[in-house]
Amino acid sequence: MKPYLKVNEWRIIEEGFDAERNEVSESVFSIGNGYMGQRANFEERYGGPSLQGSYMAGVYYPDKTRVGWWKNGYPEYFAKVLNSVNWIGIDVEIDGETLDLSSAAVEDFVRTLDMQEGTLSRSFTAVLSDGKKVRVESLRFVSVPFKEIGAIRYTVTPIGEAAQLKLTPYLDANVVNKDSNYDEKFWDGISQDSGVDYANVEVRTKKLDFRVASHMVYELAASGEADQEFHVEAETHKRDKFAGLTLSLRAEADQSITLYKYVANVTSRDHEPESLAGKAQELAEEALERGFDALLDAQREAWAAKWRDGDISIEGDETAQQAIRFNIFQLHQTYTGEDDRLNIGPKGFTGEKYGGSTYWDTEAYCIPFYLSTADPGVARNLLVYRYKHLEKAKENAAKLGFAKGALYPMVTMNGEECHNEWEITFEEIHRNGAIAYAIYNYVEYTGDSAYLGEYGFEVLAELSRFWEERVNYSERRGAYLILGVTGPNEYENNVNNNWYTNRMAAWTLEYTTEVARKLRSEEPDAFAAVAEKIGLTDAELEKWTDISERMLLAEDPESGVFLQQDGFLDKDILPVAQLDPSHLPLNQKWSWDRILRSCYIKQADVLQGLFFLGDRYDLETKRRNFDFYEPITVHESSLSPCVHSILAGELGYTEKAYEMYLRTSRLDLDNYNNDTEDGCHTTSMAGTWMSVVQGFGGLRVRGGRLVLNPFSPESWTSLSFKVGFRGARLKVTVSGGKTTVENEGAANAALTLYGREIELAAGESVSGERDPQAGAPDEAVRG
Ligand code: BGC
């Protein structure tokens, strides 16, 4: 693969305009602030291929399900993150010709995402049809401190000769979702208006009545003498769901005309519908009052604070450095944890695919990032989000015919299932395991066991009820079985006894009974309250223990490998390396039938279980399974390489760990899976973070202690990251085989560094060296 973007530690840079790559760049250069997100579409008109995307968090549309063959149990709709008001638009006309990079010749094009300060900029010279040249420079951001505000500075300079300019800043809600099932338009207009110094639109969704109001104000400046008066004529425009105004003026040769566009976007999720338009106006006017430079300074400060607490610094390898910052940057752009109604969509706000909805990705991949880098309240909110959906998850189980228990949806916006492929909707029930695991992870990490009595235990009990009913006991095999599932590996459907699903189900049942015992003795009132609320009986608890102890967890007696599913070893096993590379990616080259029959694994499956339950398996077991499954894994899910990287690191396969790290961290920057035009793989970015902190850093939490067993790839002269742990703030620096941990926080930290237990007081630091024999973090703990 030829790297396209320039390597720089703080910036993503595209030099030269390549229309073919534009949609990929639109994803990669997206900006967001957790409240809204914006693909890197151009401000001016663009007639070439482009996926327009302006998204408001939590504003979605229940698009009626479309399937060829309806199956009972399918949800009525697929929730879609909505393409919302296009607030960035500025049409540009130079001497009567519309500026459009699909028709003009483009010179010196540079697009830059500045991750340090949270801005997107672009500059280029366009040669128009009559040979006139115009230079354009733009900078925009969505404000972190003023979350409703988007600001743009757009400068046009006619080169060498004067020109008549028309600049038309506008707001346009005549937008569509490319993935709309029935080519419907999702918005109805409420109002639009424009005057010489403002424009606004207000719209509502055709279903669910989400409302969005956008208000725009602007300033115009010309280079040259300080108070130069220049003559501007303004013409207003409005039509259904559109409002804007055209500013006509003459620019002298080489004179720069700068338009500052300030937009406030507000939604009925946060404000009363009647007050929306007024609120948008008030916020936009406040932004104008502050001015572009002040807003930009505030943006820089806000990002500086994020980086101060959460940067990962890698020295000696700029490619890896850029990549990890890009991943962290996108995660911060997607979810801030301030709004407990929100979650983390697999593509964040960088595209439509996956609908911006919640997947198991959050529990399996994202929670660890927030546990270590944010206030514990953020991870707690993500858990409470699922607690609030418990009733819906029970309804979902009932809809599929279960008498009790909860089956969380595979994809959701509001707790209802909205995925409609049977092999996923009905069969990827392993998501229930991840939800239980996240509760465990949170409690282990934070020590907040009160969460269990308050929310966690009730969820665990309902998950366990589901598993109780979903298993069946086989006399023939003397074990409980789980038949007809799809594991994390979506390249096999309707298989029996997927090891991962069975393992996580058994583990959930065991953990639930353990929590029940603990609660009953330590917080009897909390236990009694939950038991009464859900009618929990001792017989149920006993049954759960029985199932967890006798669940089938099949292992090949000869090789000692856990069987991904009952029939896995009947397949032809041929390493990916022996496939003709022209067959990859399989999902674009092979028929589905061929994929299903093959041995190729889309993403970590057995290995996912060994990663989650890493403290229960010794290194040799992990090695056997890794050596067997890794060579047949194609990583066609972005969620795969990170888990492989972590396990490889643990096993001492440092080159593999590094290879997988680059693959996960540069997945979008280098467009590995050839699908970044749909949006960035945001949830897997949390996996990338894990591959550094849990992989190279070897971070685990065991028995209330933070375990570190760091190493760094050979090409890195140093690696440094920060994690929060129970009030302590630890800066971990790995360099030359030595690790130093500084406690910059207020509380002491119970630490295990390379197997040595240390109480690291606030303000103190400690160093240790890796014993090359030590291997895995869990081995170090055991040792
Ligand atoms: C993966 C799922 C994942 C989804 C969203 C799919 O390709 O196989 O595990 O939940 O993407 O990221």
Notable features of this structure?
9-stranded antiparallel β-sheet, binds beta-D-glucopyranose, 5-stranded antiparallel β-sheet, Glycosyltransferase, alpha+beta
Can you give a write-up of this model?
The chain is an alpha+beta fold and 783 residues long. The model has no long low-confidence stretch (mean pLDDT 95). It is built from 21 helices and 29 strands. Helix content is 33%, strand content 25%. The protein has a nine-stranded antiparallel beta sheet with strand order 1-8-9-10-11-18-15-14-13. α10 packs across α11. A hairpin with a 2-residue loop joins β6 and β7. Among the domains are: 298 residues, Beta-galactosidase, Chain A, domain 5; 204 residues, Glycosyltransferase (Alpha/alpha barrel), CATH 1.50.10. The protein is globular and about 85 Å long. Bound molecules: beta-D-glucopyranose (BGC).
Distance between the first and last residues' Cα? 43 Å
The CATH homology group name of the domain at 11-308: Glycoside hydrolase, family 65, N-terminal domain
Query: What's the overall geometry?
Result: globular
Give the helix/strand class.
Answer: alpha+beta
List the ligand species: beta-D-glucopyranose
User: Widest sheet: strand order?
Assistant: 1-8-9-10-11-18-15-14-13
Query: Over the alpha carbons, how many angstroms does the gyration radius reach?
Result: 27 Å
Count the helices. How many? Answer: 21
Helix content: 25-40%
Mean pLDDT over the full residue set: 95
Domain Glycoside hydrolase family 65 N-terminal: 13-269
Domain Glycoside hydrolase family 65 central catalytic: 325-690
InterPro entries: 6-hairpin_glycosidase_sf, 6hp_glycosidase-like_sf, Gal_mutarotase_sf_dom, GH65_N, Glyco_hydro_65_C, Glyco_hydro_65_M, Glyco_hydro_65_N, Malt_Pase/Glycosyl_Hdrlase
Pfam families: Glyco_hydro_65C, Glyco_hydro_65m, Glyco_hydro_65N
